[in-house]
Amino acid sequence: MTTEAKTLTASRTDTRRLATMAMLVALGYIVTVVTRFPLIAAAPYLKYDPKSVVLVIGGFLYGPLAGGAMCLAAALIEMFTVGQSGIWGFIMNVLASVAFVCPAAWCYRRRRTLKSAVAGLTAGVVILTVTMLVWNYLITPLYKPNMTREAVAGLLLPVILPFNLLKGGLNMALTLLLYQPVNNGLRRLHLLPALPDGEVRRKIHVGNVLFGAALLAVCLFAVQVMLGKI
User: Fold this and answer.
1) 187 near 201, Cβ under 8 Å?
2) Cβ atoms 50, 35 nearer than 8 A
3) How many whole angstroms separate alpha carbon 68 and alpha carbon 74?
4) Which residues pair with 47 in a beta bridge?
5) Among 60, 37, 136, 62, CA closest to 95
6) What is the C-alpha separation between 59 and 51, in angstroms, rounded?
């Protein structure tokens, strides 16, 4: 292959990559707007949306840096459209998304196996939960005058901890269920590079689906309990 051909191929790959990332950011924004619901009856203002599922799929495809960039772009769009907390809400949004997306994408980038995906997503759930405990305590009183630091501290264990655990668990379950179908679909649309010679498109793993479905069921049951419906 000539130098010009290599340059053209690289340019096309970069264009596809940017187009796919932009599409995922747009999809993340759409699900944020249309799919939001509370997880805990004690804090109906804390609402879940599956945006991070879309973004972590992007991170799995393109790596943790790309995943972080998509988190930043999605939060920025959200701040200027549907956000109600200004710059502080934007910061919290970015911190929550990055805490889940980047560790998961980093683990999966090192070794693209189901085991690494599960390990990375589990790390993402833990880091998301711990990160938001810390940053809610530090940041929330800065932009919510009615919430003193003592009041926030009283919410950490009964509200913020279970909310982020449930949020992370739902993100993990949906990612395990959706990643491979989305990956295969993007390849059929030629939005991802062709697989190397000798490598075949991965089929959807039954164990992956069963584990993701079981985790989703557990999380949804826990949400019903936290909402007082069971």
Assistant:
1) yes
2) yes
3) 10
4) 38
5) 136
6) 13
Distance CA 104, CA 67 (A): 10
DSSP letter string, 111-122: --SHHHHHHHHH
- Return d(Cα 183, Cα 199) in angstroms, integer: 14
* Cα distance between residue 166 and residue 97, in whole Å: 14
Residue 181's nearest CA partner among 160, 202, 166, 162 is: 202
In the chain the beta strands, taken as DSSP E runs, fall at 37-38, 47-48
Q: CA 203, CA 209: separation in Å to the nearest integer?
A: 11
Mean pLDDT value of segment 148-172: 95
User: Which candidate, 130, 128, 150, 125, places its Cα nearest to that of 140?
Assistant: 150
* pTM, full prediction: 0.89
Are 125 and 171 in contact by the 8 Å Cβ rule? The answer is: yes
Amino acid found at 59: G
Q: Report CA dihedral (219, 220, 226, 229) to the nearest 10 degrees.
A: -160
Other CB atoms closer than 10 Å to residue 9's CB: what's the count? 12
**Residues 183-203: tens digit of each pLDDT:** 888 888 777 766 544 444 556
Compute, in degrees rounded to 10, the torsion defined by CA atoms 49, 188, 104, 157: 20
pLDDT single digits (tens) 19-38? 999 999 999 999 999 999 99
User: Could you give the angle at the alpha carbon of 68 between the alpha carbons of 180 and 31, nearest 5°?
Assistant: 60
